[in-house]
Amino acid sequence: MACIVMKFGGSSVADIGKLQHVAGMIAAVKSQGFDVAVVVSAMGKTTDNLVTMAGQITARPPRREMDMLLSTGERITMALLSMALHEKGLAAVSLTGSQAGIITNDRHTDAQVIEVRPFRVQDEMARGKVVIVGGFQGVSYRRDITTLGRGGSDTTAVALAAALDAERCEIYSDVDGVYSADPSLVEQARHLPELSYPVMQEMSTAGAKVLNAHAVQFAKEKQIAIYARATFSPGRQTVIRRFTPGTLPGVIAVVSQSRMTLVRIDGQDAVGIFKQVAAVLEKERVPIKEVNLIAGRRDRGASKVSFVVAGDGVYGWEKIRTGFQERFGEKITFEEGLAAVSLIGEGLNRNNTTLLRTLALLSRNGIRTAGVTTTSFRISILVEEDKLEDTVRSCHRRWVSG
Known about the structure:
Layout: E1 3-8, H1 16-30, E2 35-40, H2 46-55, H3 63-87, E3 92-95, E4 102-104, E5 113-116, H4 119-126, E6 130-134, E7 137-140, E8 145-147, H5 152-163, E9 168-173, E10 178-179, E11 191-192, E12 194-196, H6 197-205, H7 213-222, E13 226-230, E14 237-241, E15 250-267, H8 270-283, E16 289-294, E17 303-310, H9 317-328, E18 332-346, H10 353-364, E19 371-374, E20 378-384, H11 388-401
Parallel strand pairs: 1-2, 1-9, 2-6, 3-6, 4-7, 9-13, 12-14
Antiparallel strand pairs: 4-5, 7-8, 10-11, 13-14, 15-17, 15-18, 16-17, 18-20, 19-20
Helix pairs in contact: 1-3, 2-3, 5-7, 6-7
């Protein structure tokens, strides 16, 4: 029997009424003869509330204990949804990530899925049950509960869909797919009915919140089509799948991410200092991105290294930063209050036209550029955070909406 994996985000299961609505949606799919596995997030702002409570106790909570705490949110949702399905006459069973066979490394608070052993899920579906899995969580090889970081329920859903050889993976949230910009910032944002895996992955990496970047990577590797839909307003959707080579459409979306910090290291020993800083950040589970290293000539010596830290989801960043300043003094500097605005599309960097025209556009609008990074599918520009909205609107008007 064909299998469909359905994932519901926190806004879709925020209260009992919404849980009952979701139960009705699941029942409708089940009635069509599909095996159904459901992945759920914590209800509403549950995860945020748990993080706040931990912060009232300590600025740097132990990561293992944060995983134990945060994993409880999804367990509440899955049990209540199972009860709602039973009330509709459907056999259902709730499983934690570990019970569902989600095996991860032991990197607490941002673990990576390394294997899915869905035997229990398959057994329960063979008995005719809807299987409800707590997203965002798994179990390490040390048998510790782990969590997958923000948006990790998407990863759970796609990894499970791949392991079950599902027909498709449906991701439900409060928006009906992916847009060319955040509709709350740009009224003219366009709905994008379909996207390729690489473009969606770049959008997610650059700050788009509809899908998790690791989930898209899983889908790309296993060729699982993802359908991004709205829970309460059916109709439009965005399908993420493999595209055959074709024309290069240029910029199709403008994505932003706030609360960015640009870290600079200068001096003859800049490379050595960077290695020490990176080792500390790895130990503290602080991800870095957009690393630029310019090694000095042997006869002159001075080197420069820069990288970016995204403030979201970093526990105890203030204390970590203070430690670096005390240790390395003026050799390391931190520019806070930045945001990244990214142009997304295929073939953007086949020449320098898009980059140069964008930099000129920002200059005309009095927007300072603090840094630039490019990939095959993305041009990212660091700007001051209070210029974020102006930058997004200007870039979208220039490159997308015309």
